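Work Package 4 report. The design task specified in the project plan requires that, given a folded chain encoded as structure tokens, an amino acid be chosen for each position. We show below one input record used in the internal validation round.
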């Protein structure tokens, strides 16, 4: 890929904590990923050499472990994978349209002519992307293509339908295709943080995140309510606690937790 979208707000929100060398490493890793259109070498030293940062291999390793996932194929970045897949679909679509135009005139395009036509179509698409003129992929008039694009992953067990719908819409608005791999990564990070998947997705929606990392909420983990406690239950509990502090009495809603013992029974 010679072009990829750079969402400044998302990048700044997710990398504000990085040191200068870590930030440089991350930008170079992204450039390399898009040039290769695939996973980066699993060997840290090899990857550091490819981005010309062999003397800062520790910074490269830190960034890889935070933003990438190590797989049998190498270091994978879910957002990059989504962007690459989207661009490849556009390339294939431009190629099909070019071929159809030739067939309509009863001609078979030569390799040289076909390549030129495809290059022109791809350059036009890239120029429109750069100007922020990307069409909404969900408004494709082709019925079969619509079904493919709108096929959604079923809401995971234990996740409220409205929370899931909000998260899917958030991913769509930021052009981050929701794949099972991406969802598995969020689930894994939620488990690592001691959060339920639903609470992790709520946090993503409230902060505008397309993904979730345990490190991003480390400061909240120790002070947060148990994952099984809903927002309403938490508000009710805090309200009862404030009432008890002000009155010095046990709240009627907490009386079920109090054991009443008759002093006379103890003397019997």
């Amino acid at each position: 890929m010679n072009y990829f979208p750079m969402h400044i707000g998302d990048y700044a929100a997710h990398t504000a904590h990085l040191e200068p060398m870590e930030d440089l490493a991350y930008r170079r890793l992204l450039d390399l990923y898009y040039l290769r259109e695939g996973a980066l070498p699993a060997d840290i030293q090899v990857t550091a050499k490819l981005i010309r940062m062999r003397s800062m291999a520790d910074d490269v390793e830190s960034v890889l472990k935070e933003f990438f996932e190590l797989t049998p194929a190498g270091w994978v970045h879910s957002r990059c994978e989504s962007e690459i897949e989207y661009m490849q679909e556009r390339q294939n679509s431009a190629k099909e349209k070019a071929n159809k135009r030739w067939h309509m005139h009863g001609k078979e395009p030569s390799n040289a002519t076909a390549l030129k036509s495809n290059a022109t179509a791809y350059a036009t698409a890239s120029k429109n992307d750069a100007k922020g003129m990307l069409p909404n992929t969900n408004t494709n008039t082709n019925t079969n293509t619509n079904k493919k694009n709108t096929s959604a992953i079923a809401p995971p067990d234990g996740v409220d339908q409205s929370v899931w719908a909000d998260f899917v819409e958030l991913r769509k608005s930021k052009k981050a295709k929701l794949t099972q791999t991406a969802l598995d990564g969020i689930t894994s990070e939620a488990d690592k943080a001691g959060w339920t998947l639903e609470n992790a997705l709520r946090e993503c929606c409230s902060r505008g995140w397309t993904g979730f990392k345990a490190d991003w909420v480390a400061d909240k983990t120790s002070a947060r309510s148990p994952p099984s406690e809903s927002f309403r239950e938490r508000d009710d509990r805090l309200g009862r606690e404030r009432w008890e502090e002000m009155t010095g009495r046990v709240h009627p809603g907490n009386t079920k937790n109090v054991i009443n013992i008759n002093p006379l029974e103890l003397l019997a």
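The first strand starts at residue 69 and ends at 71. Validation will be extended to a larger panel in the next phase.
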